[in-house]
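Most newcomers find our protein records easier to grasp once they have seen one. A record pairs a protein's sequence with a compact description of its fold. An example says more than a description, so a record of this kind follows:
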Amino acid sequence: MDGRPTIRGVQEAQMVSQCHGAGLIDASVTVNGYRESATDPPGTAQVAIAQLWSDFGVVAVRDTGSGWAPLLRQQQACAGQTQVVGGGLVLVEQDPIDDCDVNVTADSIDAVIALALAGGQGWLNMRPHTEAWLDHCAGRAADAGLRLAIRGPLAAEAAARVGASVLDSFSWLALAGSAGPARPAALLAAWAEADMTAIRDRVLRLRDADVAVTSELLALYRAVFVKQGLDAGHLDRLEPILPHTKHLADMRRAGGFVSGRRAMAKHSGAVQPKAAQLRVAETGWQRLLEAVAGAVSDGLVLLPGSRSPQMTLCPGYGLLEELSVIAHAGVSTERTLELATVQAAFTLAVELPSAGEAAVSAPSEPKGFLSLRPSFSNI
C-alpha cells in the first residue's frame, strides 16, 4: 500500500481550508449511456453528461468501468472542464453480466494489464467470484503499479486483505463473503437482517487498511423504490443519455402510471417489488443509513458516489442528492462536503482547483445540498 494517496495524518483545519470551494467529486459514475438506434451519433450521451457535470459543479469523477471507447469520448466531451479518472473495463472471472464486463482468466490478466497501461489507465476494476482469482489478479495489478477497485460480496470481505484502494458500494458489507450477485431488493433485505456488530467489524478492518468505500446509496434505494424516483429533479435532461427515461414522464401523467410502468419494465428492466418486499426493504434501508453514519464516525473513508446516470439519477444532480442522503443519515453537512471534495481528492489522487472565487460552504441542513452549485471556472 506504499505510495497510495491517503489523508491519514492530515490536520482537520487543513482539510477545511482546502475543501470549501474546491468543487465536487463524484467517486462512482458510468459514462457508457446507450442509443435508440445505430444511426444516432455515438457521442450524444457523453456531451449531455459533460454539460450536466458542469452545470452542477462536479470538477472530477471516477468511472467505475464503462469501457474504453465511451471513456475516451467522455474525456473529449469534457474538454478539460471535468477530470475523468479510473474507467476502462470491469474484469470478471465468470460470464459477463454487463456490457462492459470482460471475462479474464488467470493466464490472461497480464495482457489486460498491458492494455490498461498502454491506454494510460491507472486503475483496474474487478468483480471477483473466487479468492484464488482475486488474489492472483490483485497481485499482478499491484506489481504493475495499478490501483484496484473491486465490487461485490466477495470483494467486501477481501478488500482489506488484497490491498484494494476502493470498495465499490457500502451496501455490499451486508453480504460480505457470500457467493454470487444479489438484486437490489435482496440486498436491502440482507440489511434488514444484518448483524450490525459484524458490519462494524468489517468497517474497522477497511478503515485500518486505508480502503475507501463508495456510497451509492440513492442508486440502490431508487432501484428498489422505483416510484420514489418520479419526483427527482431534472429527469427531462436524462433523455439524451437514457432515452427510456421518457416512460417516467408517462408515469407522472394522470392515468398513465400503469402503462408507463409497464413500458419502463419492458425496456429497462426496472420493476418495483411487491408491498411485502418493500416493507422489508424499508427496514433494511434505515439500518443501512445507520451503519453509514456509524462508519463515518469511526473514521471510514466514505466516498460519495451517485452511480449515475441511471433512470432517475441525473449526472451532477445525482451527486447533490447523494450528499443530501449522507447528511440525512446523520453525517454532519460539513463532513459530508469534505468527503465529496478534499477527502475524495486525496483518495483518488485528483488535483482540485484552488478555492477563492469558487468558495462554497456546507449547507445548514441536508436538503440544502440540492441547491448547491459550486463554480469551477478556475479549474
